[in-house]
Amino acid sequence: MPTIESLNPDTPLFSHAGINLASAGLGAVAVSATDEFFAPLERMLQDADPVFIEGRFDDNGKWMDGWETRRRRDGGHDFAVIRLAAPGRILGFDVDTRHFTGNFAPAVRIEATPDRTLSGQTRWTEILPHKALGPDAHHFFRSDSAESWTHLRMHIYPDGGVARLRVFGIPEMDPVSGGQEIDLAAALNGGRILAFSDAHYGDYNRLLAPGRGRDMGDGWETRRRREPGHDWMVIALGTRGTVTRVEVDTAHFKGNYPDRCALQAADMQAFGDGLTSALVTDSMFWKTLLPETALGPDAIHDFRTGLTGMGPVTHVRFNIHPDGGVSRLRIFGTPG
After folding, report:
1. The domains spanning 3-171 and 182-335 adopt the same CATH topology
2. What architecture is the 3-171 domain classified under in CATH?
3. Omega before 158 within 30 of 0, i.e. cis
4. What's the pLDDT score for residue 9?
5. 46, 128, 161, 213: least CB-packed within 10 angstroms?
6. Strand residue runs (E) in 182-230
7. CA distance 142 to 127
8. Are 299 and 228 in contact (CB under 8 A)?
9. Tens digit of pLDDT for each residue in 22-61?
10. Architecture of domain 182-335 in CATH?
11. Hey, is 228 helix, strand or coil?
């Protein structure tokens, strides 16, 4: 059964129209916080879902998977500064208080700046006014800000804990001149995964992340297929472009890499940011970009020849036969 996350009625469409600009795995950094007594700010930016470990304590108290400040007694409030993984336009937020039941932050407010080098003269703009938070839950808030931002300042009132902060946005593309080749699918260029057949192991979002995988859990891996067919993934490119070469990296996948892979592509300019089951169905009939080609274990496969001549495309369907794991996918091309 294919997974189409943006059809989940509990999650807003903006959470699927951009990438998580606050992802530590993509390069977001915890710059500073007024207090980190119970749990450090950097945990709030981790990509994995928060966990609760019964009976685990450290020198300051109960170990919590997120950012948690001590109880304030001075009438003030806590705040933290975060550098985004890339400058970008923010579509919305998920302020996640999962596992914080009696110690969650009761309210949040978020400011932003385009200043790449923070100083005492940095000017901050409010992009999320005061919003109430509850215990042990996702809190989705839309942002109507049209500017591009580099840093956030997150205020919590008066104190408490937040498990994860997700900042959904569109990265700002660096100017491209003279037909320069870029990775059209890179998350930091705005590429995002829309749907997939299975993602039983690992972290599928890491497929479009920078660098090579650290281990077998740092990539997309499906369960062992025991029925006819093959696994697949539908990807929206960060920008429309003409594909010139493809890299499929099976780093660390030695006994469980796919036997073969193939790519299909289409120009879906008129489709917009939405995702419906119709798009996934349509992807089965997209034109072939790379015919079925053999893969090997623990290696970068560079496909410069064998690509069929296609014009500009906006979406690709990555097919693996019959199943297995892939660490990274790069789809290089010229925007336009």
Report:
1. yes
2. Sandwich (2.60)
3. yes
4. 58
5. 46
6. 182-183, 192-196, 201-202, 220-221
7. 10
8. no
9. 999 999 999 999 999 999 999 999 999 999 999 999 999 9
10. Sandwich (2.60)
11. coil
